[in-house]
Amino acid sequence: MKGENVVRTLALTRDYGDGAQRVRALDSVDFTVDKGEFVSLAGPSGSGKSTLLNLIGGLDTPTSGEVWVGDDCLTAKSAAELAHIRLHRIGFVFQAYNLLPVLSARENVEFVMQLQGVDATERRERADRMLDAVGLAALADRRPGDMSGGQQQRVAVARALVTEPLLLLADEPSANLDSETTESLLGLLRAMNERFATTIITATHDPIVMRYARRHIQLKDGRIVADDIGRPPV
Amino acid sequence: MTTPLLMIARLGLRNLLRYRRRNAMLCLAVAIGLGTLLFASAFLRGWETSMREDAIDAFVGDLKVTSDAWLRDPVAEHGFTLPDDVALSLDSARVIWTTRLLLPAVIQSERETRGVQLAGIDPADEAHMSFVRKVVITGRALADADDTGLVLGRELARRLDTGEGKRVVLSLQDPHGRNREFGFRVVGIFDAEGTGMELAFALTGRAALQKKLDATDLQTEVSLRLPDPRAVHTWQQTLRDALPGLVVNRWEQLMPQISELIGFSNSAIWIWYAVLLTALAFGIANTFIAAVLERTRELGLMQVLGMKRSLIVLQVVIESMWIMVVGLALGVILGTFAVWYFSDGIDLSRWAAGAEMFGLRAVMVPRLVVADVQRAVVTMLLLGLAASLYPAWRAVRLNGLEALRGRT
Ligand SMILES: Nc1ncnc2c1ncn2[C@@H]1O[C@H](COP(=O)(O)OP(=O)(O)OP(=O)(O)O)[C@@H](O)[C@H]1O
Ligand SMILES: [Mg+2]
After folding, report:
1. Which of B342, B325, B330, B335 is nearest to B384 (CA)?
2. Contact assignment for B4 to A115 by CB distance below 8 Å
3. Is the model's pTM score more than 0.90?
C-alpha cells in the first residue's frame, strides 16, 4: 500500500436490508485519496455518497471489501478501536446536529481535545486560535442555540480541524445554508485544506461546494462513474 | 484520566440545569416518595415497639419463670419458692429481676363484682421493669412489699364504682385450695393510658399478700429484664439448668399473638416498601428513559466524535444519579423531620375509638430505624441506577450514526 494514501478502498460493498428488500448501496468501489486532496462526491440521491463517507469514517461496516484510513484497516476493528481512530484521525462535519447544545462554541471545540486528554491550557489556546481562524472569536462563549446555522457549521469545522486530523469528512455541510454562507464556509475549508494540507472528502449536491473541491467523483447506483483527478478547479 | 471525568461532570451539570424544571420535579418526587416511605415505616416501627414494650411490661419481662402447672391453671397452689442461690446469682449478674405473687381473684365493691388478677409486687423492683413504673397514680403508690393497701386501675375503679379510701373485698384461693376473703383499702388509682392493664391487675405488697395467705416466700413467677436482649437465649438456658422443675419462657412464647402481630407488621413494611418503590421506580424509569431518548442525537454525536461508549453511559448515569442523590437526601431529611415533628407522639384517639382493642396506645411515637433508612436508600439508588443504565445502554447500542440521524 502506498504511504501517502490517506484513504483506500478495496472492492468496497455495502448492502442494506435482506431478501427482496436488499439494496446494494455501494457496489465494489475501489478508490484512493492522497494526502492534501479536497474531494467532492456527487451523484443523485441514493447513489451511495453518505454510505461511502460513513464507511470511510468508521461509522458503518461494509458488507464486503476493505477500507483503509492511513495504516489502519477499519474492516477488522472493534467498535472501541473505531472510536479511537475517529477520535484521533478523523474530523466530521454533518448537515446538522453537529454540536452539543449545552456547551459553548469554545467548549464544543475543546470537547474532542478533552477526550484526547489534551491539557486545559493548551486546549483553550488551540480552541481560541481555531475559532479565530473560522472567524468566530467573538462568539466563543455562545451556545449553539444562540448562533445561526452558518456560524454553527463554522464551529463544527473548527471542532473538526482543531485536532489536526488526517482526514475531514463532510456530509452535505451546506445543505442548510444559503449560498453566501456556503461560499464563506467552503472558502474556509479550502483555506484549511491549503494551510494544513488536511485531506477533505465531502458529499454534496451543491455546485458551490463542487466548485471549491479540486477533485470530483461522481457516484451512480453505488458505483464510481466519473473521477476527474488532475482536472484543475473551475 | 481525570480530564474526561471532569468533562462528563460538567456536561452532566449543564444537562441537569438545562432541564431544571423536570429535574427539580423528579427530585421532589423522589424526596416525597422516600419521605413518605420513611415516615410510614417509622409509624409501623413505633407501633411495633409499643406493642413489644407493652407486652413485656404486662408483668412478663424478657424472661419469665413459672411452674408448668401455673401456666395451665394459675392458682396459688401452683406457686413455688425461688432457691436462695439462684436469687443470689441473679443479683450478682446485674440483671433486673423480681418475683411476684399473681393470683386470680374476685373483687367486690359495694356495687359491683368483677374478676381481676391480684398482683403481690415489690414496688421498688417494679420501678425498673413493668408498666407500674410508667403509670400515673392518684392517691398514693405502694410504699414497699409490706404495704397492705390496694392500688386499682382507673377503669376498674370506675366500673366497680369505687375509689381512693374505700374498701373492697377480694376472694381467692390460698395455697391449700381453700377459698378466702380479704378486705383491702384502696389507697391509690393508677392510670395506664387506657391500656388493658387498668382492668387486668390490682396491685398490693407482695410480702403483705404472702402474710395474708400464711405463705411466706410463695411466688408464682420470677420475671427478668436483661440489659442486652440478645442474650435472652443464653439466659433462658442458664435458668432452665438452675431451676429444674420450673419452666422458663421468653415473652414471645408467653404472648405468641403479639409476637406474630409484630412479625406481620414487619411483612407489612416490606409490602409497603415494594408497592411504593414499584410506583416510584416506574415514574423514575419513565422520566429517565424519556430524558435519554430526547437526547439520542447528542449521544450519537458523542459516539461519532469518538467518545467511548462506556464514558457516554457513565455520563448519563452520573446525571441521573445526581437527581437520585439529591432527591434521596431531601427525602431522608423530610422523613426525619416528620418523625421529629411527631416525636411527642401522634394522638390516635380522635380517629381510632377502638384502637385500644388492637393494643394501640392512644398516643403513638414514630421510630425511625437506621436499617429501614439504609434499606430504602440503597434500594432506590439501585432502582435509579437501573432506570438510567438501561436507556443509556440502549442509546449507545445504536450505531452513533443512526442515533445522530434521530432513529431510536
Ligand atoms: N440505514 C439504511 N437502511 C436501509 N437502507 C439504507 C440505509 N442507508 C442508506 N440506505 C440506502 O442505501 C442507498 C444509498 O443511500 P445513501 O444515503 O448513501 O445515498 P446518498 O447518495 O447519500 O443520498 P442523498 O443524496 O439523498 O443523501 C439508498 O438506496 C438508501 O435508501
Ligand atoms: Mg446522503
Report:
1. B325
2. yes
3. no
